[in-house]
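Look over this entry.
=====
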Amino acid sequence: MKSKREQRRNDYTKLKSKVFFQMLLITVAAAVTVYLLRYILRGLIGDRIVRLLVNAFHFENSDALTIYQLVIRNNMEEILFVVILIFLVILFRFSASWFTKYFDEISAGMDKLAEESDVEITLSPELDFMENKLNQIKINLEKQKKAALDAEQRKNALVVYLAHDIKTPLTSVIGYLSLLDEAPDMPPEQKAKYVGITLEKAYRLEQLINEFFEITRFNLQTIVLNKEKINLLFMFQQMADEFYPMLTPQEKQVSVNVPDGLTLWGDADKLARVFNNILKNAIAYSYENSVIDISAQQQDENIMITFTNQGNPIPREKLETIFEKFFRLDTSRSTNTGGAGLGLAIAKEIVNAHGGNIFVQSNTEKTVFTVVLPQKHFT
């Protein structure tokens, strides 16, 4: 295979050939001009100048020859130099105009980068390498613009969605508090029931407000890592215990398969957030009475952690966007089970900050989220 330097050099082949032949033409034209001028000034023009002096100014033939000899023939080199200089200036002026047209084409092509059209940038054949690069840049800019617009639309839609959802628990909180305020002699059992409902709705309201904070902080927050030694078995067992209340209603289980003593060097709090987000996602989309498997093992210099669950497969077209901001796998879900679509996006940011990678595979049998993190050896 050709090196990048050779490929880049070949990109300019047509242009260099055109410039070479242009300069060769100028050189040949200059040489021919010198030869013709010498021939003309010493031959045909010389005889005509002598006759002109004799006929027009009535010089003697000998005097006319002397004047021609002194003025023209003896200064032949200087005359040729001035004529050739003028000729070369004209040729180089023409060549400069010819060459600068390429810069005009490139400038016009760069102007088209900002245009919102599907028209391809077209340049001269000698600039086909530049044409390809400009068109590729145009395609990339259009993709980035579309991605930014899509992300902004998803964000706006989710903000509206969350704002609408906030009204429901807030209305309930106000309603039940009003009932409690208006009926101070309410039976204790009924009062306890209303207080319980109000507290539940207040917690839900807090969750939705936290979603808003996540949306605001996501683009502003710089991830700063405070690394320490992490015992993965202990972390995942503790996590399984914390999620037990979410698992019990649908009789789901979490199975932790991590070698005892497997350690990782990283930010414990932020990695816990990564694993919590993945596990929460696995619980939300797994079948009832199923087992969610959390496994970890060392592979060379890395630690590979997998979260496996049985559930409906993630569509292929959504596997590429599942880690994007404000992406929700199931937009029809209520915010009781689905968040603002930031969990997996934030998880990817944290994993990348650790120098690792995160990806997902899904088929009709299972869905597997894999996190690969570099391991630091402890002495």
In short: The longest helix spans residues 128-182.
